Amino acid sequence: MPQAFRRILGPKRVFVLGLILGLGLFFWPARTLRSDNFVFYFPTSRHIIALEEIGQAQYLPLMPVLNVIGKVGALQEKRRSLTVWFGKVQIVLRVDNSAIQVGETRLNLAHPVRIVNGQWMVPVDFVTTALPRLTREPIEYQAGSSRVFIGDVKPTSFSVRLDPVPNGARVTVQFTDKVNMTTASSNGKWYLFLGDRPVEPLESSFRFSNSYVNDIQFDDQDGMPKLVITPAASGLNFYPTVAEGGKVVVADVLKPPPSEPQRAVTPQPPEAGTAPVLEPLPGQGGEEMPMAPAGPALPVVVLDAGHGGVNLGARSRDAVLEKDLVAQLVARVRLAVLATGKYRVVLTRVGDLNMGFDERAVAANLVRPQAFLTFHAGNLGITSPRVMVYSYQPPSPPLTPDEAPPGLFVPWTKVQQMHLGRSRELALALHQQLSQIPGITADRPADAPVRTLRSVNAPAVAIEIGSLSVDEDAAVLTTPTFQNQIAAAIVNALEAFRGGHT
Amino acid sequence: MTNRAKLLTLIMLTLMAAGAFYLRVLTRRVSMEAPPFGEQVARTRLTEAALQSDTAPQQTATLYFPSYDQGALVTEERQVSWAKGDTDRVRQVLLALIEGSHQGYSRGLPAAVKIRAVFLASDGTAYLDFESEGLEDFAPGISSECLAVYSVVNSLAVNIPAVKKVKILLQGKEVDTLDGHADLSDSFVPNPSLISPAP
Hints:
The complex is a heterodimer of chains A (502) and B (199). Chain A is of the alpha+beta class and 502 residues long. Chain A has three domains: 37-150, 2-Layer Sandwich (Copper Amine Oxidase, Chain A, domain 1), CATH 3.30.457; 158-280, Immunoglobulin-like (Sandwich); 300-395 and 410-499, Aminopeptidase, CATH 3.40.630.40. Helices cover 21% and strands 31% of the residues of chain A. In chain A, the strands form five sheets. In chain A, strands 22, 23, 24, 25, 26, 27, 28 and 29 form an eight-stranded mixed sheet that branches. A seven-stranded mixed sheet of chain A has the order 9-10-3-2-1-12-11. In chain A, β13 (158-165) and β14 (168-175) form a beta hairpin. The longest helix of chain A has 22 residues, at 480-501. Chain B is 35% helix and 19% strand. Chain B has four helices and five strands, in the order ααββαββαβ. The longest helix of chain B has 30 residues, at 3-32. Chain B is elongated, with a radius of gyration of 23 Å. The N and C termini of chain B lie far apart (91 Å). Mean pLDDT of chain B is 83; it is low at 34-44. Classes of the chains: A alpha+beta (502), B alpha+beta (199). At the A-B interface, α1, α2, β9 and β29 of A face α1 and α4 of B.
């Protein structure tokens, strides 16, 4: 027997066996977490809930899902099971068990129920399996997609075609209904925002073997449906036009004429890595996009939507995420500011990206803005809706004129300290306008050590709306009325601030 | 190779595969379990004997807690038997803030937060090193985060004259912010303007 052992388990074989097992363990995929969103569309609202990938399956947190479709009456949590009273229906779930009880019916989910960080997670097919038993509203869900339409929602759909034209390619997008489009460009891509209507794409991704357009992706992860067009090369021009009353967009992607002097066209193709510059696209049919007005350059306003990507920020009881809420608000403010025709607007982030503090400051400082506004949402107590405006206050006393560094250079961490006076004026102008909105509490401007503002080389303020906390619903903060009132107040404040400046 | 040797090899490979699989399951289970912190843990730490000074007379300590409604810090007074050293007093104030208000005010530091270390430098800077895990339940937002930081800074400065500035570290390292808002890159000086006047 010992001889047999030695023969079978000689040192070489043990080494090889150990190596194989070690490599196997090393390459065995660990549990990965990914931050995507699932969008619930209702006739007059939409809610975004973060998806989590557990193993190979996508999961939704149970309580936020139930909160968006109704009201949870009560719940009883034990170590391995959860009972939820939802209206007249009782839901029973058990950890690591794919069978759930909804009322009298036993249902089988595609994957077992899990608990992650104290949250009960259900696989995405809970939407099709259990939701129809919890609401009487019709539910429309395309398997594999990250959106569901609940109630009398008539989503728009579209088709995409790519045709060759001399010196370029023509993208034609045909919609089933009129959409109010705006365009934007950022990080070398072009964006067609499709307005407030829900959109259900037949295909989410279109790839092309073409020298001008790589692909077109549909994205509504932040609740804002849009098409993202990726050009195949840098330096191409993008000329979108709207036709048939907003039901068709024709966009020519063309090489720039070699000897023609640079003209101001709308919108200019971006170069990767530069600050994103957004321009509006009027949603009127058949006409060419307007040219940017000739003459002196317009002052720039930088709008910064806080958080983004995996950095979710605050979260409300009804599953509104700060990163999505402020992105939506920034989009409305951008439109309102551009509508004045007096400013250019630069966004520090477009879409669901997690930008660093310094990246945001660099994007702003490159365009030498007249004003920098960063938007956040957080716990502001029980009074809601409420708005607070902050200018920067360094954690330690600011530089006195004697201490200010002589010469050309200012430490990166102290750049905003050179603008504290003007930033406070901007905060005051904003407060004066925001406090005039009926039904909204606007506190007097405060100084705070807001990290985003620290290195911005311009008058800069932070605007925080609330209250966004796990103890409160935040639906009121998502309404177009509230957000448009804020946007209008900001436009008026910028005018007042600019007037004081000149 | 004899049949017996083949059988032995098969059994050993099966056992090793089962062991490897169990190791993976164990790793996954550990990563999915919630951190074992809680209110009870924080309260238990308050009774740490090292910080109690039974012989010292009871004195009034002033603590500041956030009021999100007012956007300010509200004052709460409490009887404390101060420890002898300033560093231990810093720890006492922090534990009292972690314990939370006795008068129902909001919490600045989460109940599950754990203090890793406290240093008091000769220039009056108190270095506070927290574990990052316990800060997950932080009330998010510019206002709430700044109030939380200043509830610590102001409470330390008012009770311990040796504390002139406060520098907050997480896991022994400098960090940009606690939760994306308050600038922690520099030391904080007290900000009395945030304290709500007594009613």
